[in-house]
Design brief:
Shape: elongated
Number of strands: 3
Largest sheet: 3 strands, antiparallel
Strand order of the largest sheet: 1-3-2
Number of helices: 11
Mean pLDDT: 89
Distance between the termini: 48 Å
């Protein structure tokens, strides 16, 4: 078994027994995973070391066993395991979710920027993660804007405001929002538009000043994690909207 295949079994074992040790986790995984083989212990150890590095686990089980190979789930790790945020600690599943939610329409720039953002987050480099994810958000907003321009031209609509949008991320997101809503989209798009595009605007704004100049954001673990978790659904909304725009233009 490779690491992605081991992840759900490890997470289940930690949910059931948050104070444990490496071999106990292996025993749980071996019992639960039919495909597990003895040689998979090395990949399993890598998963556990990843979780230690990411702050999901910490050394020690109790005062009598304070060191490795004994481990315990941290308060942060418990929140992730309980809320489903553990997905952000499984890069392969995260990228799969992103691609599936957009029906494969997310561009390589978006997918790879999001992947690198998550890997940076897992290394504790929260500012780098925010910069990379904001870069992906800019690309997603650019894709939507381009789709609005193309479909507008085909329908004989004015697109000057979209083409001459200002340099700030907030203005670009707002311009795209207004243009999309004016097209009278179906309810499932109209009802989400403000929240989803507003969220992308907030994310993109992390790396741009009001005049569009680049800047380095301040970022912490919780806020960056929130952006990471919201991003796939924001992408789902944008590429669903693009599908609708292309369908309208072709009808």
């Amino acid at each position: 078994m490779d690491k992605p295949a081991l992840h759900p079994f490890v997470f289940d074992a930690l949910r059931k027994t948050p104070q444990t040790h490496f071999r106990a986790v292996e025993n749980d995984v071996r019992r639960a995973a039919e495909a597990y083989e003895r040689r998979d212990v090395l990949a399993l150890n890598e998963v556990l070391w990843d979780l230690l590095r990411q702050g999901i686990l910490a050394p020690g089980k109790n005062s009598l066993n304070p060191d490795l190979p004994f481990v315990h789930v941290t308060a942060y790790g418990a929140r992730c395991l309980e809320s489903g945020e553990i997905l952000a600690h499984d890069p392969d599943r995260y990228v799969e979710r992103l691609q599936a939610s957009t029906n494969g329409r997310a561009t390589p720039t978006v997918v790879e920027s999001a992947r690198e953002a998550l890997l940076s987050f897992l290394d504790g480099r929260h500012t780098a993660a925010a910069v990379l994810l904001a870069h992906a958000a800019e690309s997603v907003l650019g894709d939507l804007t381009e789709a609005l321009i193309v479909s507008g031209r085909r329908a004989g609509r004015g697109t000057k405001r979209l083409e001459t949008r200002g340099p700030s991320a907030a203005e670009r997101a707002t311009t795209a929002l207004h243009a999309l809503v004016r097209r009278n989209p179906p309810d499932e798009i109209a009802e989400e538009a403000e929240a989803q595009l507003g969220g992308l605007g907030v994310l993109a704004r992390l790396i741009r000043s009001r005049d569009g100049a680049p800047r380095i954001p301040s970022a912490d673990q919780d806020r960056t994690l929130a952006h990471v978790l919201l991003f796939p659904d924001q992408c789902r909304f944008v590429y669903h909207s693009i599908d609708w725009l292309e369908g309208e233009a072709g009808s």
